[in-house]
Specification:
- The complex is a heterodimer of chains A (about 120) and B (about 110).
- Chain A has strands spanning about 5, 10-15, 20-25, 30-40, 40-50, 55, 65-70, 75-80, 90-95, 105, 110-115.
- With about 120 residues, chain A is mainly beta.
- Chain B is mainly beta.
- Chain B has strands at about 5, 10-15, 20-25, 30-40, 45-50, 55-60, 60-65, 70-75, 85-95, 100-105, 105-110.
- Chain B has no helices and eleven strands.
- The chains are: A mainly beta (about 120), B mainly beta (about 110).
- The interface between A and B is medium-sized, with 26 and 21 residues.
């Protein structure tokens, strides 16, 4: 299995531009999570999906952030318009209830820099 | 509100030493606890997961323990190697659903050759 795949790995954009981050979860995993990591705040859960349905988006910082999961193998996190304070590493993770433990598997992350 | 703390934030030890990383949580009602490793510029790799009914889990040179009543977990690394240098994070799952897990801020470990 290729694991969780994220693209792009690095993104540099100017303030005000739209940014779209992409994630392909591990095949067969029912849950998908989007996290943001910064030095100041550590790892923060932004939103998670179960069977393509958003379950908890309480971590989404503001309306500029949106996430979708149109099918079981693809999710996007969009920031529009982007701001310098959005600069962070964004991780996607997936898990399955099959193992009962809901162990999460993380992608390599997308490092976003907004100038 | 569950809070997860990892102290110290950074640790440096010479190669070959055995070491212990600490994780504490404020609410003992957890479903499980997971230890992750994160290398610079990389994602998180799951190392060990302990269910609330378990006391410890072992994988190679790693041993994780869990004491729910005191709100503590430790990750023991035996015979440390330079390749063990990374940031180690613990995370607790509050309940049996696949809802959010709560991460500590991590301990950055450096093994000196």
């Amino acid at each position: 299995d290729a694991g969780v795949i994220q693209s792009p790995r690095h993104e540099v954009t100017e303030m005000g531009q739209e940014v779209t981050l992409r994630c392909k979860p591990i095949s067969g995993h029912d849950y998908l999570f989007w996290y943001r990591q910064t030095m100041m705040r550590g790892l923060e859960l932004l939103i998670y999906f179960n069977n393509n349905v958003p379950i908890d988006d309480s971590g989404m910082p503001e309306d500029r952030f949106s996430a979708k999961m149109p099918n079981a193998s693809f999710s996007t996190l969009k920031i529009q318009p982007s701001e310098p304070r959005d600069s962070a590493v964004y991780f996607c993770a997936s898990s399955t209830p099959d193992l009962a433990a809901y162990e999460q598997y993380f992608g390599p992350g997308t490092r976003l820099t907004v100038t | 509100k569950q809070e997860v703390t990892q102290i110290p934030a950074a640790l440096s030890v010479p190669e070959g030493e055995n070491l212990v990383l600490n994780c504490s949580f404020t609410d003992s009602a957890i479903y499980n606890l997971q230890w992750f490793r994160q290398d610079p510029g990389k994602g998180l790799t799951s190392l060990l997961l302990i269910q609330s009914s378990q006391r410890e889990q072992t994988s190679g040179r790693l041993n994780a323990s869990l004491d729910k009543s005191s709100g503590r977990s430790t990750l023991y690394i035996a015979a440390s190697q330079p390749g063990d240098s990374a940031t180690y994070l613990c995370a607790v799952r509050p309940n049996s659903s696949a809802s959010k897990i709560i991460f500590g801020s991590g301990t950055r470990l450096s093994i000196r050759p």
